[in-house]
Amino acid sequence: MQIRAVPFGAMGGVYEQDDLDAVARVTTAAAAGAGFFPLPEENDFQQAFAAHEGARQAIAVNSCGTALDCCMMALGVGPGDEVITTPLTFVCTAGTAVARGARVVFADVDPVTLNLDPEQVRQRLTPATKAVIPVHFGGLAADISAFDRITAETGVPVIYDAAHAVGTLYQGQPIGGRGLASCYSFQSNKNMTCLGEGGAVTTDNADFGERVRQLKTFGYVYGGPQLRVASVGFNYRMTKVQCAVGLTQLAKIDRVIQARQERMVRLNELLAGIDELILPVGHGAGHGSHLHVVRLDSTRARCTTAALTAHLKTRYQVGTAKHYPALWTWEAFANQGYDGTGCPVAARVCQEVFSTPVFPQTTDEELQYVAWALRQSLAELR
Ligand SMILES: Cc1ncc(COP(=O)(O)O)c(C=O)c1O
Q: Which of 46, 63, 143, 320 could form a disulfide with 199 if both were Cys (CB 3.0 to 4.6 A apart)?
């Protein structure tokens, strides 16, 4: 095949004329006197997002990180508390708990789904456990029923990191109302994006939702005879232009996710039979298909993942990404004494994973090229 560049780049977001029109409409109205406050678009977007994700309410914020932080603050997470999560994730899944003074406890992942293993979580529960944060890794739903049982038996709340999981289904149903809350990301490469940044908390718990709503706007309590500040919060709001684009993004999200699903299923077909690779499970209907994460099986491979991805890049111009290095390997965590003790599956998986460049816009020729380049690379590195 002819060498062609298939980068793992700025793609992912799908912007069309309706998104551009929304920006122009809201900006023009604001500049003509409507102003950038108040935010009727926020209300509309929150209702539409809650409906899409099957939750009673959604609270728009400016990132998944701030969504998680609102949840940590609303739970009162602080020094002396423990929060259990997966080490196979982005920094801020654990970072918000650490930033609030808690100790994060890493529990191991399931070797097939790569999601947080509920049994491993159980073994780490202590009286200090304040919350559990599973990630719907890559867009594949976590084992929600098992986490529900943990909450029912122990009272420990579960906050889902749903950064990858707009549109993810669990047993055929949207996930947004499950656990105590879910935290979504609309950052630029996610399934839907709000001009580069954005996020939401969804919840079925009215009191918790109200706490989050207050904390994202300085702690203001509206609605009484006079404005109160019940607790100190921040300005974590999304702008009205972003909320307007959130609405147009939602109007196309099912189509965009289907395009992702089809391409990830197709790439799995093209890669089938390469015995050095462990392919991701669950792609197709119900999978959020945010990431296509392949593992180079370290018990069979004759090279490392780092060597393979470097070769793919330099020889074939195929870009990949790493989701993720184990959290304990980042110096911010290593310096606080975190390590991989008790997480042998994650320790291995984090060495093996690489994400292929599959986006809603990826063509079939590009998928065929990526599969060919992978086969070639594996043969050349023997
Ligand atoms: C699993 C996970 N959680 C949280 C985040 C943070 O999202 P945001 O950039 O919206 O804060 C990301 C972003 O990549 C993520 O992948």
A: 63
HSE value, Cβ hemisphere, 13 Å, CA-based, for 52: 25
Least confident of 1-15, 148-162, 294-308: 1-15
Mutation to probe ligand 1, out of 8, 63, 90 (largest number of atoms < 8 A from CB) = 90
The stretch 32-36 carries a mean pLDDT of 91
Mean pLDDT score across all residues of the chain: 97
How far does the centroid of ligand 1 lie from the alpha carbon of residue 273, in Å? 33
- CA 187–ligand 1 middle distance (angstroms): 7
pLDDT tens-place string over residues 47-62 = 999 999 999 999 999 9
Return the bridge partners of 57, or none. Answer: 203
Q: What is the CATH number of domain 17-248?
A: 3.40.640.10
pLDDT at 11: 57
Q: Do residues 354 and 309 lie in contact, with contact meaning Cβ atoms separated by under 8 Å?
A: yes
Closest ligand 1 atom to residue 65 Cα is: 11
Q: Between 1.20.1260.10, 3.30.420.40, 3.90.1150.10, 3.50.30.10, what CATH number should domain 253-380 receive?
A: 3.90.1150.10
Ligand 1 atom at minimal distance to the Cα of residue 186: 10
**Structure confidence at residue 247 as a pLDDT band (50, 70, 90):** very high
Range list for CATH 3.40.640.10 in the chain: 17-248
Residues 184, 160: Cα–Cα separation, whole Å: 9
Q: Which residues lie below 8 Å from residue 333, measured CB to CB, with a gap of 6+?
A: 94, 98, 104, 327
What's the angle, vertex CA 107, arms to CA 105 and CA 108, rounded to 5? 155
Question: Which atom of ligand 1 is least distant from the CA of 63?
Answer: 10
Q: Which of 32-41, 83-92, 317-326 has the lowest mean pLDDT?
A: 32-41
Catalytic residue numbers read 190
Residue type (1 letter), 308: L
